[in-house]
Design brief:
28 helices; about 60% helix; mainly alpha; Leucine-rich Repeat Variant; elongated; about 400 residues
């Protein structure tokens, strides 16, 4: 680096392109750009603009390009973008090029520059989103471009929302699209996602996209999602990923939506299977907490007959977590009884309601009058997960360890 110290830029004329690909030469040129001398900036631009694709993907040259994009004028920047547009997708997919291209997008200032970037990327949006490097370029476009200018991204992800939403990187980009879309764009995009919600919720990544829509807490978006799951609630409740979405709907949807979910959970022949399922039993637990008062009453009545037989309870006696002898039996203590029904655990126990999904069964909800359970019924529901695993007849609430 010392060989470049105090070296006038004019002395390296004709060598600038080669210096860009040298570690020390590149640092020297960056320092010259930082001096903000328009003549020096133009001199570096003259010798590099025809090589911008190669330099943007070079381990050292990409840093020079980032500085040049920052300090050059609009006309010079337009030429750099025009030259890069010839192979912009390859630049975006490159581990070095992605950084330089993000900087290029950050410094666009004119409508002509914006349009050149749109034209270069518009037909490869899904491919870019699914790429480790390319997805950052699309996210930079979302951050920098106006909502109308980003329409090409919304069109691509909306029309391919399953391919995008079920991808590790794509599910994150799809959520950012929801954030950046304007009113009409957001309604259209969420509508496309909702159409495919039954598929998305069963995917390890796609379920987060649907949960993101639910978390917007807008009935206009949430209730159509509930409707898409009609006649599928029990099936989705038994699935590892979609069960999370059903729980979130129980917490966030309107009373009508919650009633629909409870109605399907209470269909003949379903409750026993749901209670014994390592995912669906958490849906039952959440339903007991967030259902309407009438729904809670109906659930208790349906669950009661499925309590384990006395012989089964006795065989798991040592695993039972007993309730306090002085627990109140009057109707005012509905919270404790509801928790007993859902979790079978003493409210003072450290084991109460903590799940591998991070949901915690909360007390203190106004649940109305719930039918009382006898101490024997409470004790039966208090069998531990291990007892349930060893004794198939024991109803439990909580995921079994895998």
């Amino acid at each position: 680096m010392q060989r470049y110290q105090n070296l006038p830029l004019e002395h390296v004329g004709g060598q600038i392109y080669e210096l860009c690909k040298d570690q020390h030469g590149c640092r020297y040129l960056q320092k010259k750009l930082e001096e903000r001398n328009p003549d020096q900036v133009h001199m570096i631009w003259l010798e590099t603009n025809q090589h911008v694709i190669e330099l943007m993907t070079d381990p050292f040259g990409n840093y020079l390009c980032q500085k040049l994009l920052e300090y050059c004028n609009d006309d010079e920047r337009t030429v750099l973008i025009q030259n890069a547009a010839q192979d912009m997708v390859r630049i975006a997919l490159n581990q070095h090029g992605t950084r330089a291209l993000q900087k290029m997008i950050e410094f666009v200032t004119t409508s002509i520059q914006v349009q050149m970037i749109i034209d270069a990327l518009r037909y490869r949006v899904v491919e870019l989103i699914q790429d480790l490097n390319g997805n950052h370029v699309i996210q930079k476009c979302l951050n920098k471009l106006s909502a109308p200018d980003a329409q090409f991204i919304f069109d691509a992800v909306g029309n391919h929302c399953v391919d995008v939403g079920t991808h590790r990187h794509g599910c994150c980009v799809l959520q950012r699209c929801i954030d950046h879309a304007d009113g009409a764009q957001k309604v259209w995009l969420i509508g496309k996602i909702t159409e495919h919600a039954p598929v998305l919720v069963q995917d390890p990544f796609g379920n987060y996209v649907v949960q993101y829509i639910i978390d917007l807490n807008e009935p206009a978006f949430t209730e159509p999602v509930v409707g898409m799951f009609r006649n599928r609630i029990c099936q989705l409740s038994r699935h590892k990923f979609s069960s999370n979405v059903i729980e979130k709907l129980l917490r966030c949807s309107q009373a009508q939506g919650r009633d629909m979910i409870v109605d399907e959970l209470l269909q003949p022949g379903e409750m026993d299977r749901l209670l014994r399922d390592s995912y669906a039993n958490y849906v039952i637990q959440t339903a007991l907490e967030y259902a309407t008062p009438e729904g809670k009453h109906r659930m208790v009545e349906v669950i009661r007959p499925f309590l384990p037989a006395e012989t089964v309870v006795e065989s798991a006696e040592e695993a039972v977590i007993p309730f306090e002898d002085d627990a109140s039996e009057d109707d005012g203590e509905v919270d404790a009884e509801l928790q007993a029904l859902a979790a079978g655990l003493d409210s003072d126990s450290e084991e109460t309601g903590q799940t591998d999904k991070g949901s915690d069964f909360k007390t203190g909800q106004d649940v109305g009058k719930i039918p009382k359970l006898s101490k024997k019924e409470k004790k039966a529901l208090g069998a531990s997960k291990n007892a349930a695993k060893d004794e198939p007849g024991v109803i439990y609430v909580g995921r079994l360890p895998h």
